[in-house]
């Protein structure tokens, strides 16, 4: 069992970048938490609407959802943002962290990637996912999402305000890229990652009793009190 | 008007790598020649069959077809191969050259890329295309093939022996990659290239009379005598 | 006809980086706009003097000139700077954008490059030019400026305050680099670019009536009201 | 359970590059096969001596050992070498393949890496290890060998002819590099890898009965008949 | 004789990155100045304690020590920081400058590297050292510290608050990395550097009288008045 | 005093790549040997003529000249070529080795670079120079040749057959590149190098008596018996 933390700057970034992989983690019984660093204030879409969309998407992927407190288009890779991410890493006892690639034309993506690399400096697994705005990206690690592409697309569809209005969110492209990277990985559909640091765990997983090994189900989204912020 | 030369190690390599771009060149009135360096002796498929498939594909793209004389899986980047490519460059007075990317897991692809870089040392435009076996590939130059994807797929379909038997030739992946690179290029479908050297010609094209400016049509495939080999 | 937008942090940056290419665009009949993001307040030279020099240089290249509103040595790649550049892209309906290379020891150059990559996220052609302070720079796209080097040097000479006082502005080096990159490009003199994204347009240009196809001449520099700021 | 194939040009290359990782695979119950492509004819040490050393090392790591049929310092990345490696991949039904890094000053290492990339073109996991002669090497994937460093050193010690006479085989450096890469990986001792392609398997391993899940023990080294060669 | 300036974000960064090289410079008679940009306010350890530790370390290496005025975890690569570094370069008439590598997960390290590249834009020798938090690092220049490793470790030991509490400062790793890089450099122990720009001086050093050629000894640490700040 | 060995595939390669640096070494009193791996059989120019030109050039730079025994356009990075280079390294007790860059469109340049990296695997200083056919080249180490550019051009002029007939040998470009790289290095004229491995020697040079410290003068070119081949 691995504790998974996925971090994105805006609502929908995580689903676009690694939604299929998160579904695969859930299918394997791993607890997954999503940390969205800003409220997506710059739109398209209203903040309340986008928050509801993100919560629906997290629910559809059966993941916990945390919100940061930075503002859209104004994320800084400073001590505050780093502290928010460090809080999420501690709270989730994260074993593997997914985050934006560092070379991205969106300033918030760059800042979240940099702040995460700083916050995760003691972590053994930090994997960078691709966004439509990513520039250089030479992936070498892949996750087979052939059995999970539909869940990725369903989670993205929850972000109706983006799918309808942003040229960057296009399900046709999402499926095409998954097939493109799948061919690179010698599977059908894949998500692709650049590892900053990935320790491959060869040890046989501890033999858990079946009750524990079952896929946990989250009862509810966290209340505001439970949120790291 | 630009003289175009596309070079590949085996029958179908060129169509996979830049078939849409060749169609776009033809639509713009540029003469296009394809040089296939080996006969594809290692299969799948018989040599005669593959030769016929390649000729059908070239015909469907309305391009000239030349054959080199290396053997499949045994191409060397040596003086002989370089001389064949130099001959094709001279014969076509090539203004732009398309060829495999240098970092590829297929030894023939690497050899053809290296030999072409040597043969084209005085040329101003050498663009590397991607193959399913290419390893590192960071494209920065794209050609919009939205209007030509169907012709690319039709040309590939001519290589029936490959489409049926090689895991590397899959029309689904071809379309997906075109959409993937299209999104990177901010168009619908694109082919992607890594330039070794690309001089962008800003000069206004000479004002040709309409008769001359029309897209030339090749009457027939070259006879053996016309082939550089 | 292509709408061209060249962006630089300080007066003289654009001329140093791509002045010959802008002259080539003008010779080909393309409208060209220069956006200088700061007033060059840190000198050498007074602001008014540098403004006049930049206007003389733009006039000598027959380009429009826009001014941003950032301060020298304090450009941030933030929403404000991005908005200024987005405004210029919209106003010029830019088809091709020239800007600093991202890896540069001058903080303003890095910020302008990053802000431009963000503002131009939907554009199909973004080319990075080199400055004397650029660090890593592996060009693959070139423009032949053999017929335009004199105009580049003349435009630079307009920046008298810089030529006289800055070690970074040296016509001898400008000509040497143009010859150096020219040899790489297999032409006499060239400017060199790293493409972030370059869609090569193969379509034959629409046949314009001669009156329209002639090189347009700007009557006057824009008034303050016309300036995007 | 993963089928592991490790490939090296000379006796001792595999142990130097990934001996600790092979021990970790064995501890996790994975069958491991080593393929040594040449007999190490160029010394130091006699062929028979080196063969015996390699067999002792393989026995100490509890791995199977296969021999290729290339000559030391004359490995070619040609169809023959590729066929030998393809044979080993088929025979072992390899799920993960370890091999030299491609950028290495030893010609045999380069050839074995290139031939393996070709032979493994359909495999989902190809990881490159470092040799003392490797040039560029930017690892991003690590295996924690803190519990296995002693077995790596013991396996290396079997190669007495090398430890005594080759400046490239120095246990002090082996331990230091393991600590150096361990610090990079945030563990104590690690081996470092550059993935050409690594599909991370998130699926829960099938629940095996205990008898099957135990670490298999090889009874004996393969006889010549069992060897792929 | 070369004037040496080493720059680090926090107390202990310089010793970790290039302490052995500074000892080698001193042994060769070169004056060495260390500029610590922040007071290390974020700990572990109190500011006064860390200041005393840094002074003891500088004394043990027989180097001058300067303090910048930025705050720990809040260094900006802005005009202020650049001015501090420019001041130190001028004051020391630096011939060679050592500083953090640009790609580092600590925001202060990135900022100090960027500010130094800006401040040192006219300098001929800027070498980047590695920190435990450095990400990409492909060294090509090395200094043999076999005769100076003990002095490096002694200088580090002065930073008691760090050695005791920071996972990033571990003498075992320091020695291991020195051996690892030493093997790369074909010496016993080495520090490794990435040059941004390194002009190798081939000229025979001026023949100094012996009195001048002796290794200078600093009598005392600079008083506050002597400090650039 | 450093023993210098410069290696090139063809007559004139060494002078083009590092002729000014060799002159600077001679001015500093370092013995310099040039090893030309082939006889330049492919021309332009006859072998005897090219041999005489190379000898005149070596004489003009006051360097020793050795000839390898490979054929032009057919150099292999095999055991034979490696042995020739190992012989030259041993014979000259080389402290620093100059050779082609590995990424070059000329097959002989690639082969000589690879063979040298193999032969020099125990050497501490291997620097790659640029040729007109070099592709990727990101220099970080420079030698100031402002005082030696004229000697470089004079040595090149000895290769009359090349200067007259090869587009790749153009004194105008040589001077321009030296100025271009000089600006990068913050000197007037420079040659640029990519280090594979460069140990910077900080130790004060041994105090030689004046007689010994003088620049040695070679009396004559080596006879055939003295040549390593």
**CATH fold group of chain A:** Rossmann fold
CATH superfamily of chain A: LmbE-like
Helix/strand/pairing class of chain A, anyone? alpha/beta
State the share of residues found in helices of chain A, binned by percent. 25-40%
Count of helical stretches of chain A: 8
CATH architecture of chain A: 3-Layer(aba) Sandwich
The amount of beta strand of chain A, in percent, is: 15-25%
**How many domains in all of chain A?**
1
**Major sheet characteristics of chain A:** 7 strands, mixed
What does this molecule look like?
6 copies of one chain form a homohexamer. The first copy, chain A, is α/β, with parallel strands linked by helices and 229 residues long. Chain A is 40% helix and 19% strand. Chain A has one domain: LmbE-like (Rossmann fold). Chain A starts with a strand and ends in a 16-residue tail after the last helix. The model of chain A is unreliable at 207-213 and 219-229 (pLDDT under 50). Chains in contact: A-B, A-C, A-D, A-E, B-C, B-D, B-F, C-E, C-F, D-E, D-F, E-F. Strand 7 (190-199) of chain B pairs parallel with strand 6 (141-144) of chain C, so a sheet runs across the interface.
How are the elements arranged and paired?
6 copies of one chain form a homohexamer.
Chain A: E1 4-8, H1 13-27, E2 32-38, H2 47-61, E3 64-70, H3 79-92, E4 96-100, H4 107-119, E5 125-129, E6 141-144, H5 149-157, H6 160-165, H7 171-185, E7 190-199, H8 210-213
Parallel strand pairs in A: 1-2, 1-4, 2-3, 4-5
Antiparallel strand pairs in A: 5-7, 6-7
Helix pairs in contact in A: 1-5, 2-5, 3-4, 5-7
């Amino acid at each position: 069992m691995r504790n998974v933390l996925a971090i994105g700057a805006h609502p929908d970034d995580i689903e676009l970048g690694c939604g299929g992989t998160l579904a695969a983690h859930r299918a394997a019984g791993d607890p997954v938490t999503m940390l969205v660093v800003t409220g997506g204030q710059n739109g398209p879409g209203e903040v309340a609407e986008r928050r509801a969309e993100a919560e629906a998407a997290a629910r559809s992927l059966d993941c916990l959802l945390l919100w940061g407190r930075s503002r859209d288009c104004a994320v800084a890779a400073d001590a505050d943002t780093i502290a928010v991410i460090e809080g999420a890493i501690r709270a989730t006892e994260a074993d593997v962290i997914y985050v934006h690639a560092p070379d991205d034309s969106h300033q918030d993506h760059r800042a979240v990637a940099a702040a995460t690399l700083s916050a995760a400096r003691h972590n053994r697994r930090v994997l960078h996912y691709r966004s439509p705005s990513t520039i250089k990206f030479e992936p070498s690690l892949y996750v087979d999402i052939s059995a999970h592409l539909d869940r990725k697309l369903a989670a993205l569809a929850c972000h109706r305000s983006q799918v309808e209005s942003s040229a960057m969110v296009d399900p046709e492209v999402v499926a095409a890229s998954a097939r493109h990277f799948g061919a690179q990985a010698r599977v059908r559909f894949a998500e692709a990652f650049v590892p900053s640091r990935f320790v491959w765990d060869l040890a046989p997983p501890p033999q858990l009793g079946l009750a524990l090994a079952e896929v946990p189900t989250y009862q509810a989204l966290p209340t505001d009190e439970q949120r790291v912020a």
